[in-house]
Amino acid sequence: MLEHLTSFLAARCSQTVDIPILQPADPFLESAGEDLRRRIFLTETIDGSQQCLRPEFTIPICLHHARNRPPARYAYGGTVFRQTREGAAEFEQVGLEDLGNADAARADADALADALDALAECGLTLVDVTLGDQALFNVVVENLALPRAIAARLVRNFGNPAQLKGLIEQLTRNGDNGDVANGGHQGEDGAGHNTIEKMALAQDAVGLVAHIEEKMAAAGLSSKVGRSPEDIARRAIAKAAEGQFQLEASRAEILRGFLDLVSPLDFATAGLKEFAKATGIDFADALAAFEERSAHLSVRGVNVARMVYRASFGRNLEYYTGMLFEASVAGAERAVAGGGRYDSLCTLLGSEVPVPAVGFSISLDRVAEAGGKT
Amino acid sequence: MRLTIAVPSKGRLKEKTLQAFAAAGLEVMPPASERSYQTTIAGRDDIEIAFLSASEIARELALGSVHLGVTGEDLARETIPQAENVVDFLVPLGFGHADVVVAVPDAWVDVETMSDLDDVASVYRARYGRRLRVATKYWQLTQGFFGHHGIGVYRIVESLGATEGAPAAGSADAIVDITSTGSTIRANQLKVLSDGVILKSQANLIASNRASWASGTRATRDELAKVLAI
User: Fold this and answer.
1) Spelled out in words, what is the top-level CATH class assigned to the domain A1-124+338-374?
2) pLDDT of residue A149
3) What ipTM, to 2 d.p.?
4) Would an 8 Å CB–CB cutoff place B147 in contact with chain A?
5) Can you tell me the distance from the alpha carbon of A203 to that of A196, in angstroms, rounded to the nearest whole number?
């Protein structure tokens, strides 16, 4: 089935790509984060560089694409290696990456439709799809005109509903009992801390920089490497201003209301328009793109009524930028396929030009669990 | 079947352990020869003592090759994946106190909490062309704690000693290390984040769930836990 599916997808792609099993570990750890370290098989070469067994295909394909530029759809299939608490550590995966295609709505719809077609090849035709969209959440946050760091924190936590809920809760409480960050200073000189806070509140950048430079010199820290005194002072001033910030109930309600939206995809656009009208949020291009994508999905013959739009659904990895989806089969515990738009990944991996990107992967062990042919 | 207890083989941890055992009426006999790392407890044929290094003790507990061990909770949690399923922390022994903490340069006047560190880490790559680097020998504890605070984008730099010097040496931006009084951290112009205490550790009597608990060893364990509890 692995070979059949790979060639099935390859027939819809311009390129197939050969990704070696042994990969440099750095790009994975650098883009997916330190948390990945305990899930991959790491090894060290004689010259001390870290290598790992291919944990997935997307990152190597993006790296391959960076040397190869023109827009392309890549199909892949093979074994990936991940550490799990129980059971197997190697899994078969097939998938597709569409890199450089500027028509995002159509590329999104095609990726999702191809994923469903591939699942149908395995005999899985009654598949439920959950779909989310990072771009819509970003626009909601943008509309609320929040302080920059707070907006960034919300956006960063999209896809982690519990964390996000806690954060909103905390923002509404801010200011009730003074600056939350001010507690718990054990053994530090309170006077110095107060001086800094006063300078930050007074936006005294010059004074702060001098103070920070002194501290850096005392610690033997180079002001040329990493965070500079100016960077630290700038953030201290911004933070002092935000320390006064309290998210009032009305804006918190808008955020919560948005995150609670759940509807069949064919009613989602109407629901979002209603939400926009009720709250005054202007979704602008993001909603137009959402609508266009849904239309393309219908054109591709996807059963949109079987798909659910869940506003809070996402992945909190910083490189996801738009649509996210997960396909599952009733009764099976784990999703059989997942994918999404990750326009920031190529940039993160060092590409000088932004590369629009969307893709998905299907896990064959999960397909088997769900009763599909493998 | 004899019950095996792994005990630290040197330093203050060994001294304190032997004192705690003595106070509980358990006199650890000197090994038969200077080269030997095995001994017994006076009048107790059912107990065997194995002298091991503190980190080895955690490993042996994970393997189940000893029944009980005395070592720091920090080392046990760091060395044993999913420690709570593999071992039982029976008795905190009241010595070997050390906190595992997250510390940043004192010059980072804008960073006081993990949430501040999250904000700073999230822009590192875009602004400085690399991730925030955290020097530590506590990989597991760091990953767990940072993950709990929603921080995913940083890199761990392995540190095998003098972790507190890493920021000044330019090899890391922040550290995760143990401290008992905080003086080493302060001396290096670092500060502990207000919610940056990962673990308040001390020496523990720890039982391995993977050891074979046959014929009376379980009763001996319960008896030891009772007499060692302060």
Assistant:
1) alpha beta
2) 85
3) 0.85
4) yes
5) 10
